Amino acid sequence: MHIRSMSSHPRAALRSLTIGFAAVVAAAALVASPLAANASGVAPEPLSGGALGSLPASPAEAGQGDASFLADDGSYFIYRFGGASRYEVAANITADTFDTGVPVLYIASGETFPDALSAGPAAAKQDGGLLLVSHDSIPAATRTTIVGLQPQKLVVVGGVDTISDAVYNELAALQSNILRIAGADRYEVSRNIIDYAFCDIVPGGATDPASCPGGGFADVFVATGGNFPDALAAGPAAARFGSGVLLVNGGATSLDDPTRALLGRVGAEAASIAGGVNSVSQEIENDLRATVSFAARYDGADRFEVAANLNNSFFPPETSTVFIASGAVFPDALSAGPAAAAYGAPLFLVRSDCYPAPTADAIFSTAYDLENLVIMGGTNTIDNGFVTAPRYC
Q1: Model pTM?
Q2: Helix/strand/coil for 37
Q3: Same domain membership, residue 98 and residue 43
Q4: Fewest CB within 10 angstroms: 34, 245, 327, 340, which?
């Protein structure tokens, strides 16, 4: 897939995965009508269309990774990045998206979500991807991907309570150009990640804390660090504008001083808040408005509508590739963020077996020029009904 190395349309990159399947696809095309919003609250209804099984592409057939070409429905192509575990899913999408010699791979916990939420947009800023490890080990798929991609640098996010020194040392044996970005809590880790990726401030370095040699960014995306959905959806949107996702204690009654200082350091002129007041308080919004020139909130009735509203606001009509991931669990979407950013694609959240109405409206009823729908995660996370009989809920 390697969209970064291609000058042609993203469709050409994804379509290249179908080599060897042309005859099968021609015989098994799935014709699906666009989804409509289910405003009445009635039970989800299936779309018209015949059954189509998964057609997994082997590395020899697809080129690399574990992208499964699933269908050509006559108007857009459907793909899935699956795997036997969250670590394999992350490895497969990363291996398939980035070229050998990738500038950087960020390494985050696959067991907890906070550190990876800011790491995804940071990786995208540095033209890199994100892989997952456990606290005590490097999964085989992660190790294989690191060895295969030969990254120029590894950045481990989180302290020793999240990723052990033993794992860090094993990673260092794979790439000696490595550093760890840690902090006293998830919020300091988030600030430190932004300092590193956008200000070129190396952890523990002697750079003036008031300076930002890397230039910073104009628009900061702000999300709660207490939950994952809003920040996940904000990641690709932030990456599209070369920006970062800053985690805050969403329930706090004021913006803390270190966060104010960071906003000044990076030169933020605007703040885009992901989520409603139950996620990021009105008091924090008020403080943001007093700190930067402009602030806007992108909220919704639930996590699905928040993601849809963010994407509708920040992605243009010519968007042709869309990623979908589970809104119930976080691992698959963590590594999807940098990959989606590499394709210039938004990341939408779905239920395990259906499209929530705001998601369906955003993907199928907007002016998107949809050509590629990319499913993140295996069928235990996102049911194959999204291919055989997609429905709204």
Answers
A1: 0.84
A2: coil
A3: no
A4: 34
